[in-house]
Amino acid sequence: MTHETLPPSRPPCAAAVVFAMAVEADAFAALAREAVDFEAGGLTIHEGLCADRRVAWCVGGAGAAAATRAARLLIDGHRPGIVVTAGFAGGLDATLTRGAVVRPTRTISGTGGPPLELVAGRGSGPGLSIVSVDRVVTTAAAKRDLAAATGAAVVDMETHAVATAARDAGLPCVGIRVISDDAAQDLPREIAAVVQPQSGMRRLGAALGAIGRRPRAAIDMWTLWEHAVVDGRTLAAAIEEFVRGL
């Protein structure tokens, strides 16, 4: 089915969820019922029932531009009551452990611009900020520098863009993030090339190239993948809990 705007016969959604990567969305997609797909703007938009509420979601890709496009398509096509930016994030605060669910109360942009408020809830802390940057922060030293410069406790690449799209549409936005790497953890240096905004074929090429240059990278990235699958289930449960409370 091709669609640009939601047909009048279909009801609005309780929430729209923007993911960056398929591994973030897979577990949530598995728990949704009666799902249907729409093609719009080069993306696949999914709509189904979660906790008996109608929800739309999309894997938009990494980075601000991709997140903005996905959020706008979901807002225009599915008329959600709230926008959710969901996925993994890096910890900048040493008290945040890997696998923890966080709900930031404020998002700031690493490239400047005013901070935006997010809907608080379970997992939120007083003044818990997330900073959105344009590349993966891969080292503990870089995380310390970013925390000192911004005061943020969490880092990702999409939250500020999604929150901006929601604000422009007059909608509230909530961030639900699972800490995929804590403040003390160095990520494999190749991960930045794999996660950056790009096509699937270029991402595969970057991964194969990384393995060719450093065979150990295959083991490191496989370990990250295993953690991501577990974190995806944690994320799905947190989103379902949030939707149930709407």
Compact summary:
The chain is an alpha/beta fold. The protein has helices at residues 22-31, 64-78, 140-150, 159-168, 191-195, 200-213, 216-244, and strands at 15-19, 33-40, 43-50, 53-59, 83-91, 101-102, 106-109, 116-117, 129-132, 154-156, 173-181. It has a single domain, classed as Rossmann fold.
General description of the model:
- This protein has 246 residues and is of the alpha/beta class.
- It has one domain: Nucleoside phosphorylase domain (Rossmann fold, 3-Layer(aba) Sandwich), CATH 3.40.50.1580.
- The chain has seven helices and eleven strands.
- The chain has helices at 22-31, 64-78, 140-150, 159-168, 191-195, 200-213, 216-244; strands spanning 15-19, 33-40, 43-50, 53-59, 83-91, 101-102, 106-109, 116-117, 129-132, 154-156, 173-181.
- Strands 1, 2, 3, 4, 5, 6, 7, 8, 9, 10 and 11 form an eleven-stranded mixed β-sheet that branches.
- Strand 3 and strand 4 form a beta hairpin.
- It is globular, with a radius of gyration of 17 Å.
- Residues 1-6 have low confidence and may be disordered.
